[in-house]
Amino acid sequence: MEPKEIWITRIFNDYLSGPGNSLLGLVGIHGEARPWTNYVTMELLVAAIIVVLFASLRPRLSVEKPGKFQHCCELLYGFVRTTAEDQIAHGGAKYVAFCGTLFIFILFMNLIGLIPGFETPTMTPSVTAGCAMATFFYYNIAGVMALGPLQYAAHFAGPVWWLAPLMIPIEIISHLARPLALTIRLFANMFAGEQVTLVFMSLVSLGVPVVFMGLHVFVSLLQAYIFMILTMVYVGGAVAHEH
Questions:
Q1: Which of 10, 22, 142, 147 could disulfide-link 152, Cβ–Cβ 3.0 to 4.6 Å?
Q2: Is 0.70 surpassed by the pTM of this model?
Q3: Who's near 120: CB < 8 A, 6+ residues apart?
């Protein structure tokens, strides 16, 4: 059964099907009558909201008279930076941009489904898999850049050379399992939370749904934080200088 198009996806398919099919053609998919899906349009909307939100903040930044939104952003930045320095240790501030962006992007995607007429894109495995693969490539590239290819590869061999034949396949399997674990954890929690919220909103019109909407907000914050903290742990392990 095809998922029901939300209003923004319908607009994209009615007026932007040409660009959508052009993008799909880049990966070998052709001839889709309605190429845009709900989760893609919601991701684009979330990205646009984040860009507009922070673009509007930039000209209003002030040292003497910071506004409420600036205070909130500074608190968020301080929280992400402190967490990065705790988890990564070796120059954690360098990785704040990626980890903070990932946290904000996932959080907004988790929460946007609470707005009537919208849908939570992170309850689709393709979306969470994309975030997981971005993390996978990022921490491996960060490790290579921080240590060099040979020293980074030595991480896979274990602490002593004679364990290398055993440790290398174990480490490779462990690293390949990380994107899968990140994908399933975020997708499963957000899908379950969305379904519970929708069920109770359909059964009871007042009171009880508010409680589950609050739970949805809590789960959204928690899952975005867990995704970010695991990313930092992976980066910390990749850039660690073994003695």
A1: 147
A2: yes
A3: 42, 109, 110, 111, 112, 113, 190, 194
